[in-house]
Amino acid sequence: MVKLTINDTPVSVRSGTTILEAAASVGIEIPNLCYLKDVNEISACRVCCVEIEGEGKLVPSCNNVVRDGMVIHTNSPRVREARRTNVELLLSQHDVSCAACVRSGTCQLQKVATDLGVLKVPYPLHLVQGKKAYWTHTFPLYRDANKCIKCMRCVQICDKVQSLSIWDVSGSGSRTTIDVSGNRFIKESDCALCGQCITHCPTGALSERDDTAQAFSALAHPDKVTVIQIAPAVRAAWAETLGMDTGKATAGQMVSALRKMGADYVFDTTFSADLTIMEEGNELLHRLRAGDLAEKPMFTSCCPGWIRFLKSQYPEWTKRLSTAKSPQQMFGAVAKTWLADRIGVPPEKIFSVSIMPCVAKKAECELPGMQSTAAGPDVDLVLTTRELVRMVRAENLDVHTLPEAAFDTPLDAGSGAGVIFGATGGVMEAALRSAYYLTTGSNPPAYAFHVVRGYDAGRHGWREATFELAGIPIRCAVVNGLGNARRLLQALERGDVKYEFVEVMACPGGCAGGGGQPVDGSDRELATLRGDVLHNLDAAAEMRFSHENPVVLELYQEFLGEPCSEKAEQLLHTDHFAWNMPN
Amino acid sequence: MSRLSIEVPGRAQTVVEELYRDVERRISASPPGICPVDISLSFLHLCHAQTCGKCVPCRIGLGQLTTLLESVLDSTATLGTIDLIEKTARVILDTADCAIGYEAARMVLMGVQGFRDDYVSHVERGRCLFGLDQPVPCVALCPAGVDIPGYIALVRAGRCDDAVRLIRKDNPFPAVCGYVCEHPCEARCRRRMVDDAVNICGIKRYACDHASKDAAPPPCAPPTGKRVAIVGGGPGGLSAAYFLALMGHEIEVYDQRPQLGGMLRYGIPDYRLPRERLDADIDFILSTGIKVQTGVSIGRDIPFSEIEEQYDAVYLAIGAHNDRKLGIEGEDSAGVYSAVQILRDIGEGNAPDLTGKRVCVIGGGNVSMDATRSAVRLGAESVTCVYRRRMADMTALAEEIEEAAGEGAQLLFLQAPVRVEADASGQVAALWTRPQMIGPYGTDGRPKPRSADAPEFRIPCDVVIVAIGQEIDAQPFEQVAPVVRGKIQAAADAFVPNTPHVFAGGDAVTGPATVIRAVAAGKVAAANIDAHLGYHHIITTDVDIPPAHLTNTPACGRVELKTRPLAECKGNFEPVKCGMTEEEAQQETSRCLRCDHFGYGIFKGGRTSTW
What we know:
- The complex is a heterodimer of chains A (583) and B (611).
- Chain A has 583 residues and is α/β, with parallel strands linked by helices.
- Helix content of chain A is 34%, strand content 13%.
- In chain A, helix 9 (269-289) packs across helix 15 (426-440).
- Chain B has a 5-stranded parallel β-sheet, sandwiched between helices. A 5-stranded parallel β-sheet of chain B has the order 6-14-7-8-9.
């Protein structure tokens, strides 16, 4: 243990602790902006500097460790002056139109400056101009150069966690900024659109393309019938920035919020998650029996970030993807066909909106092959959880008093298996539950495949387990985060590992940690907590198996025939070769 | 009122003079990768501040250029702006009255023509084409990418053994480099911004001199069953051999000389590199289980095709051991030697006796200095080094020149050899030279000498040593690899095109260079041969680096290695330089600014722990 003094308080922490963490251990908060534990400990903002007796200069507390006998002051006049000056300097290059910013209220720069009581910046405002300020408005990821504080978190998340290195430092002197690496424009890049850079941005520099105006306009349109689907992971997180802890606000409250906004139908993507299991599970068994998985596995295909990654980084593995569409797209295809017929609305009148914890879904809905009818895309508009939250706020809805409401029929039924799609390992677990039934004719215990759950990445970066289905061993791997996915692919390429079935989620923790989820400015990683919410919903669910979903069964009976039938192939499967990255 | 008075600089001027020195040091510490347009703009600002204001082109023109360059950097300019910059600079160059104006314009013009693509990229995409690859200046400039801040921190912590282990991750010749590396790492050391570059090379030598002698290499990877032949046992070949052996491949090194080491043994005299230090590095390398065939010349004793067939890969690291001829009359007289030959003879223990001889050495590079100083040690009565340019133009390291002079060699500049005069028996009698004067700059950016209007000059002598460069003995390999202007043509990954599995590197590919570049070439070849054989072995080390001290030491002089009294150096090949003492090493290591931890290094590229 190392003993030191911070602001006259004796502190004892284990060796190797940073000054920042040592201070936090005795309740002393040191403001900071660029610091992101384990990912970005580079002391770029110099806001966390402290004074250490005997040291010549102020010392950043985020990446220097304590030593025995240190006497530290975190609020001395020298520290105060330095902290304030550095924040003022940041503000002199920041577009401080806070009232008109997507991150107003959750912006870390705003908080630090407000906490410090900065009322006036003594420096002239220098904003980026010309081509350096340009960014496309059509790509699902938006960057505002004038909100960027060059904290480098986006660079580090993309390098270290997602291994795509889309961002890099660019330019020189005070014109230094972050831009797409390799002198590319974002549309030319292999960005997977995982959105992790957005959820780790301390300010409004990175955000999703804002599609809320389009949503409001559709909701208000007299001739459009809005059909909304809500992804499983959204329910765990949606009210986090509305004053409710993770999991405290319900899916039912979300339904009533959307109804108040004028939604005609609010459905549950969990239904199409179950449908995905029917298609993907049958495809798995089919490919397994056909010997197609003897050498290389089948990958899950519900995560569009993962598909973008695979197609840009390992295109030769594209044929290993399941051809099943994602639940969002299966829902869209069903909505404009079977559902349209069922509710008696012509498909061209349906405006299909999905609410997703994801940014990549905004690109997925525009892909070729995602249009099953002549009535436009199967999913017309994708909103992230954050956009939903902005809409709830714009409507002045108070989450605390929102009543419960049920999803609309018929696409209201979803199993617990479908709900856990939103957490890493969930697709695998759901698929195995049904594959077990399909091969043995009886249900396994619902907890039989729990072992694939968990957020601990495992020794190599993924978790693995082998299950016997009617005597056939199926080697499974579950991986989340694209850096881990890359490690897994490298191991597969080298032949170090062999699997039959692999689930990949681009975001750490799966959709629960998705790039479209709320950002509260606290830097807490909430994927685990949100995943637990989903697992609890599954545990409490009456229906635990996708193959028991009565609406799914009805859909097959009335419309599709059986899983992987010709019609199902046509509506619920896709050709991953129909487009190329960069997309 | 006095008619005249003595000018005493005011306080402001004194401070400005100090700032000029700071700026000089600052520029010399510029890391590679800075935006060239921004650098041009910065120079332009400085130039414009020097303007007296009398003439239009300089007073207004430079100011307008500043504005235009700023618009390029701000990405608000158009392609027309670049043309306007070029035109304006051209007119200033043409019409400015004094150098303050036209030289400033020339710099801008050089830039707008030399890196126009970067100007265009700024205008069209708002982006600079350049960027920091490796933010730690010393590591960036070390061809082998040795973890310099890491080993300096280890030496500071008294962990010389670990320091040497860390160096060996990238360079299996730590001791050799501690003695003779040209230390490109020091050129842009950030410490120069404070006072002067850290004596990195001296610290490395200290680490090697104080590390235990019984260290063992890390264990080799499990045998792959692949066999690799290395042709040439110099620093490049042995570096490749070492890393490939660690990767689990079976290595056989062929060398035509009786002993390994190449130019390290047969080109560098003992007083610069003691034999036992060279042998220690080589023994360490060989202890990984490398097989050695010395005294075998590939292409002469064994056909190359045989080697090519027998092995899964071949690395050609044959060096550049052939001397270059002057091509003057009398060059074949008895008593005319090449520096390569003399130094090789010394390395083989057959040093010629020059007692009482008058020696002329021709050339201005490091090999010339080696020959000059060796001749002094071999008892020559006088040694005259003849060079056709000025001292400032010599390519030898400044300290080599100083020490040669200190040891009693004469340096004769601006004399171009024209012929060797022989006596009746064909023995050298004198070297005739034509006096030169320095002239305009050539295309290589160096001022060229030209013949002066003065009579030829006779230097009576008994021995002439020619040290004007080496080339490779490529003839046995011409069937294998394309040889252009005496260099084997290999790709950047060392692969020789149109061969099944032949790689080449070092002096044979680049022309005569340095030890560290040969080591780097060996490292590159090892990685790519490993990949070619279908593997991806990782070279790493478990040495942990001590954390950086929080406060850097204040400005402090650089410790230079002391030289033994020059009188003591005559007549023997004992080392000339003394290593640092412990207190010197402590002070010098404390000067390191730890760019791996501070600045960009903590963010990206501060440490490459595996390759």
